[in-house]
Amino acid sequence: MNPHLGQLQPYPFEKLRALFAGVTPNPQYKEIKLSIGEPQHATPPFIMEALAGGLKGLANYPTTQGIPALRQAIAAWCQRRYGLELDAETEILPVNGSREALFSFAQTVIDPGRGHVPLVVSPNPFYQIYEGAAYLAGAEPRFLNTLPENDFAFDYGALSEAEWARVQLFYVCSPGNPTGKVFSLDDWRALFALSDKYGFIIASDECYSEIFFDEASPPPGGLQAAKLLGRGNESLVMFSSLSKRSNVPGMRSGFVAGDAAILKKFLLYRTYHGCAMAPPVQTASVAAWNDEAHVLDNRKQYREKFAACTPLIAEVLGTGMPDASFYLWARTPVADTDFARGLLEYYNVIVLPGSFLAREAGGVNPGAGFVRIALVAPLAECLDAANRIRQFAEQL
């Protein structure tokens, strides 16, 4: 067996099941699950119709590069959304959701033969795929704590000069999971400078990019930031997804875009990996990327939920509106694991302990003492859950 498999930690939801073992939820309340970032808004009917209409494509093997219409639809969306002029032939690849691509990307770009163990850097707390991707590529993950008192900025000084010289890949998540932090142009400028100095690749995870609150100020993407700062796409690849944007997590559809030289190698890897997108999914994805009306409605629903629920929860927990995404990152008055367990037992609301989303670095686990609350359920359920959270916290 691959020895690196032994380095993988249990996934956060495995830890959650273990934490809840033996807990009997209060039967007076219906379960409300706010622990997983799974969109629960209805899938737009036109996407389902396009999926069904593409079923005849099942008679053919799909190409790894995807059909031209899909790459062109993605390029057109990137132009509308970010003002980018991307080459649909060389700078865009469809992928089966950003999670799959974030993992396989590390397997492509990490070079373990440089005489030292490569480092893969990510924010802390973080999306656990980054860590697993690093281990299974033969690299060592390193975590930079992002703390609310520092506006969730990276602590670049936590790595020594020698450690920076070993960095080959840096994962960024903006808007961030779980904090909702959006990278500013100044943030990107600082990271680009480090990439130029030490020669590492930046993987920009932007799967929450379309969940934001001010239509006049959408979060900037990594490629957009590079353009605004007068740079090219060298050593930079963005990862995007339809899952949150279009409420189709089961379709497993997204794309990567950026440095053409890197994507050429990534396409080679993926050709052998056997991860071409199914033809009906490609057809439905074209329809989804070409439409923006359903995305505007999606954001409207999230704005309503955050406006209604955030003040209620903020009365008893340390939280506030995120920059973007659909999470509240809330400080708890007791240990985050105790809070989550008690909330389930007494009020049948499920949230995720923040310590499950982070690793100890610099002597602290930056997720400890927080819970992640995913406002993905319908408005009425989110409001009900917010009131239950408030009642529970007031008793502590």
Automatic annotation (TrEMBL):
Name the cofactor(s) required for activity, per the record: pyridoxal 5'-phosphate
EC number annotated for this UniProt entry:
2.6.1.17
Keyword match NAD: no
Q: Name one GO biological process term.
A: lysine biosynthetic process via diaminopimelate
Q: Which residues form the Aminotransferase class I/classII large domain?
A: 31-382
Q: Which PANTHER family match?
A: AMINO ACID AMINOTRANSFERASE, L-GLUTAMINE--4-(METHYLSULFANYL)-2-OXOBUTANOATE AMINOTRANSFERASE
Record protein name field: Succinyldiaminopimelate transaminase
- Give the organism, scientific name: Candidatus Dechloromonas phosphorivorans
State the taxonomy lineage.
Bacteria, Pseudomonadati, Pseudomonadota, Betaproteobacteria, Rhodocyclales
